[in-house]
Amino acid sequence: MDWKGQKLAEELMQYMLVGWAIAAFLAGYFRTSFQLMMLVYAGGVILTVLITVPNWPFFNRHSLKWLDPDVAAASINPVKTKAAASAAAAGKKKGSRPK
Amino acid sequence: MHSFLLRGNAVLTFALTVLAVACVLASLTDTLHSSKPEVNVEILSVDAFGRNPGGNDEVVLTLHISADLQSVFTWNTKQLFVFLAAEYESSKNVLNQISIWDSIIQSKEDAKIQRRTRNKYSFVDQGSNLRGKDFNLTLHWNIMPVTGAMFSEKRVLTGFRLPKNYM
């Protein structure tokens, strides 16, 4: 899952569970059956698990864009990289022509 | 990064927490409930009255117990524990209470009681104070909930008296 997907999964979980609990409570209260409340809620929990736990494709729609390695390195240490690059270039010159 | 185990754990923990809150609310709805029980007990006959081998007074009664406790049941009631207690005063004790009959009612349909029975438990005194004694028969019921606190109610019936002499 990507970041937006994780947020979506967590929000879905919270709203679904609270919503199912309210529905179950009202169903049980007006039908004077505690067992009905438990059954409706259990069904709601299972449905919530099925929707929020597995890594469904719709949780991956805003996938992360990783940077190229060169661009990443440059953005972290611009000076050092340039110096290293020029030192490497100079070293190469020296080393390749022993006199 | 998230894993499905982490999400699974979060869902189940939150589900149980929400369920606990729902159960608290359910037990609170009991405070809104009003019950109208009807109770009547008659002593049909005194079958035996004398001293038992332990030296204490003992009485055997045949009772007619009729009670309608259907209105006591709520959606949050698991069962009622009903018992009939004989209550009287003696020189030794300010209050004597003896449970002489009980029953467990597990559903609303069974809550209409019509019993003609001898006392289930011995009606025995501490000593010999029962001759000519005035006593109350009190029907108590404990309301055992599915979730939450247990409450107790009772109905007191007065005006019963035991014979003046042993039989």
UniProtKB/TrEMBL annotation, chain A:
<dbReference type="GO" id="GO:0005787">
    <property type="term" value="C:signal peptidase complex"/>
</dbReference>
<comment type="similarity">
    <text>Belongs to the SPCS1 family.</text>
</comment>
<keyword id="KW-0256">Endoplasmic reticulum</keyword>
<dbReference type="GO" id="GO:0045047">
    <property type="term" value="P:protein targeting to ER"/>
</dbReference>
<comment type="function">
    <text>Component of the signal peptidase complex (SPC) which catalyzes the cleavage of N-terminal signal sequences from nascent proteins as they are translocated into the lumen of the endoplasmic reticulum. Dispensable for SPC enzymatic activity.</text>
</comment>
<feature type="transmembrane region" description="Helical">
    <location>
        <begin position="36"/>
        <end position="56"/>
    </location>
</feature>
<dbReference type="Pfam" id="PF06645">
    <property type="entry name" value="SPC12"/>
</dbReference>
<feature type="transmembrane region" description="Helical">
    <location>
        <begin position="12"/>
        <end position="30"/>
    </location>
</feature>
<keyword id="KW-0812">Transmembrane</keyword>
<keyword id="KW-1133">Transmembrane helix</keyword>
<dbReference type="GO" id="GO:0006465">
    <property type="term" value="P:signal peptide processing"/>
</dbReference>
<keyword id="KW-0472">Membrane</keyword>
<dbReference type="InterPro" id="IPR009542">
    <property type="entry name" value="Spc1/SPCS1"/>
</dbReference>
<protein>
    <recommendedName>
        <fullName>Signal peptidase complex subunit 1</fullName>
    </recommendedName>
</protein>
TrEMBL record, chain B:
<dbReference type="GO" id="GO:0006465">
    <property type="term" value="P:signal peptide processing"/>
</dbReference>
<dbReference type="GO" id="GO:0005787">
    <property type="term" value="C:signal peptidase complex"/>
</dbReference>
<keyword id="KW-0732">Signal</keyword>
<dbReference type="InterPro" id="IPR007653">
    <property type="entry name" value="SPC3"/>
</dbReference>
<dbReference type="Pfam" id="PF04573">
    <property type="entry name" value="SPC22"/>
</dbReference>
<keyword id="KW-0256">Endoplasmic reticulum</keyword>
<keyword id="KW-0735">Signal-anchor</keyword>
<keyword id="KW-0472">Membrane</keyword>
<keyword id="KW-0812">Transmembrane</keyword>
<keyword id="KW-1133">Transmembrane helix</keyword>
<comment type="function">
    <text>Essential component of the signal peptidase complex (SPC) which catalyzes the cleavage of N-terminal signal sequences from nascent proteins as they are translocated into the lumen of the endoplasmic reticulum. Essential for the SPC catalytic activity, possibly by stabilizing and positioning the active center of the complex close to the lumenal surface.</text>
</comment>
<protein>
    <recommendedName>
        <fullName>Signal peptidase complex subunit 3</fullName>
    </recommendedName>
</protein>
<feature type="signal peptide">
    <location>
        <begin position="1"/>
        <end position="26"/>
    </location>
</feature>
<comment type="similarity">
    <text>Belongs to the SPCS3 family.</text>
</comment>
<dbReference type="GO" id="GO:0045047">
    <property type="term" value="P:protein targeting to ER"/>
</dbReference>
